[in-house]
Write a structure and sequence with these properties.
The chain has one helix and 22 strands. It has one helix spanning 273-278; strands at 8-10, 16-18, 24-28, 34-39, 42-47, 57-60, 77-80, 85-88, 98-101, 113-115, 126-128, 134-140, 146-152, 161-165, 183-187, 193-198, 201-206, 216-219, 236-239, 244-247, 257-260, 281-285. Strand 4 (34-39) and strand 5 form a beta hairpin. 33% of the residues are buried. InterPro entries: Ricin_B-like_lectin_EULS3-like, Ricin_B-like_lectins.
Length: 287
């Protein structure tokens, strides 16, 4: 298996998390050549520099499995690698966003954010957990950055952000899983059909080894950390072509959907150990 996964231990931030967590760069659509950084304990946008650890951010997701926003999206904190400071909500709307020393042992809602859409593939809003209509906005400043505020979402370029890994390989659709063997997914009711993707939705189609969309990667690494209610390790099913993973149904919607797979970001909707115990499904390796 690819080694793109957290190694359990004690992180520099303190507390049990990944010692080798990947770091991210954060930038907005208006000035893609600048990244979010910390300067003199303030948030700024500065020219992109991979060697500058003040531009490297940890995405702390330890409470993401149990805390969601009103749309069901998982929360996270952005913690600066060089300083240990976390991005904190402003005191009031339309006021500057602040930084605070991150304490992984405390549950501090003021440092919890959520994403709109797939920020890794397209630009979107980095928004407050409790009020997703307000998100991070950059106001142009001098040559050394911009002031960061919370404003109501209007779709402006300074409100539109991407969060990408500094490790370029992890930004590919399969996040480094390209070399893994593939499998097909089929149901006991008719073993001549396999799960595929058609027009962006999950379908059953006559089994065809030449249909690349019927090839799936079974990523078992999440099972090292997450179990279902019966104690079975969970796994993710990732499409070889699109890099999307099968996601469990949400709310009253009984249908599964697809979501961009992020092997560094644990999402309980991607674990399918319990789902397999209910539905008789076969998973068979492709030759």
């Amino acid at each position: 298996m690819s080694n793109f996964w957290w190694h359990r231990g004690w992180s520099p931030l303190g507390g049990p998390c990944g010692e080798q967590q990947p770091t991210f760069k954060v930038f907005c659509k208006a000035v893609e050549g600048r990244c979010l950084a910390v300067r003199d304990d303030a948030l700024v946008l500065v020219p992109t520099d991979r060697a500058d650890e003040h531009q490297h951010w940890f995405k702390d997701t330890r409470v993401s499995l149990r805390v969601k926003d009103k749309e069901g999206e998982s929360v996270f904190s952005l913690v600066n690698k060089a300083t240990g400071l976390a991005v904190q909500h402003s005191l009031r709307r339309y006021h500057p966003v602040r930084l605070v020393k991150f304490n992984p042992e405390d549950f501090d809602e003021s440092v919890l954010w959520t994403e709109s859409g797939h920020l890794g593939r397209g630009f979107g809003c980095i928004r407050m957990m409790h009020d997703i209509s307000f998100g991070l906005d950059a106001f142009p400043g001098d040559d050394d950055g911009a002031a960061l505020f919370l404003t109501e979402w209007t779709g402006g370029d300074f409100q539109s952000w991407k969060i990408l890994y500094w490790n370029d390989q992890a930004n590919t659709p399969l996040a480094g899983l390209e070399a893994e063997p593939t499998c097909r997914i089929y149901c006991k009711a008719d073993e001549g059909f396999s799960v595929t993707i058609c027009n962006g939705t999950i379908r059953l189609a006559p089994t065809d080894p030449n249909d690349a969309y019927q090839h799936w990667i079974q990523d078992e690494r999440p099972g090292n950390m997450i179990k279902d209610d019966d104690g079975y390790p969970v796994f993710a099913l990732v499409n070889k072509v699109t890099g999307d993973a099968i996601r469990g149904s949400k709310g009253d919607d009984p249908f599964t959907t697809l979501v961009q797979y992020n092997p560094f970001y644990l999402d309980d909707k991607l674990g399918h150990g319990a789902w397999l115990s209910v539905h008789p499904v076969g998973i068979q390796r492709h030759p």
